[in-house]
């Protein structure tokens, strides 16, 4: 039991020592480029909160959802014939979601 406590104590001391050494030796450059927000390689104009369009986020979210549905399609395609009903149900939900996105105008690629 004493050996376990000594190993744990040694590990914590070593961890703390490495953390302090890393903090002391690190470069602390507080220039304008270092503390500014990263905006995909272009210089932001105006407030940072207003320079990102929510439309890009919505398109990314739709891509992730449809990408996951494609992965689910692959799982259904390699299964047996009894999963045909679940395949049709998934197609129904995907087409329903696609119709809803089209109906609300989220598929129009205009900034």
Task: Briefly characterize the structure.
The protein is mostly helical. The chain has a domain at 54-110.
Quantity of strands, as a count: 0
User: Low-confidence parts lasting 5 or more residues at pLDDT below 50?
Assistant: none
Number of helices: 4
Supply Rg: 26 Å
How confident overall, as mean pLDDT? Answer: 77
Keywords: Electron transport, Membrane, Mitochondrion, NAD, Respiratory chain, Translocase, Transmembrane, Transmembrane helix, Transport, Ubiquinone
Protein name: NADH-ubiquinone oxidoreductase chain 3
GO cellular component, one term: mitochondrial membrane
GO molecular function: NADH dehydrogenase (ubiquinone) activity
Set down the secondary structure blueprint.
Blueprint: H1 2-25, H2 32-35, H3 54-77, H4 84-103
Describe this entry's structure for a reader.
This protein has 111 residues and is mainly alpha-helical. It is 65% helix and 0% strand. The protein is built from four helices and no strands. Helix 3 runs antiparallel to helix 4. It is flat and about 60 Å long. The termini are far apart. The mean pLDDT is 77.
Keyphrases for this structure?
111 residues; mainly alpha; 65% helix; flat; NADH dehydrogenase (ubiquinone) activity; NADH_UbQ/plastoQ_OxRdtase_su3; transmembrane; mitochondrion; NAD
């Amino acid at each position: 039991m004493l050996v376990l406590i000594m190993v744990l104590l040694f590990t914590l001391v070593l961890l703390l020592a490495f953390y302090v050494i890393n903090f002391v030796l690190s470069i602390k450059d507080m220039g304008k480029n270092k503390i500014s927000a990263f905006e995909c390689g272009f210089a932001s104009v105006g407030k940072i909160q207003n320079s990102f369009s929510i439309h890009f986020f919505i398109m990314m979210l739709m891509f992730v959802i449809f990408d996951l549905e494609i992965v689910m399609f692959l799982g259904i395609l390699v299964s047996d014939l009894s999963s045909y009903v679940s395949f049709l149900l998934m197609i129904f939900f995907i087409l329903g979601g696609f119709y809803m996105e089209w109906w609300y105008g989220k598929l129009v690629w205009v900034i």
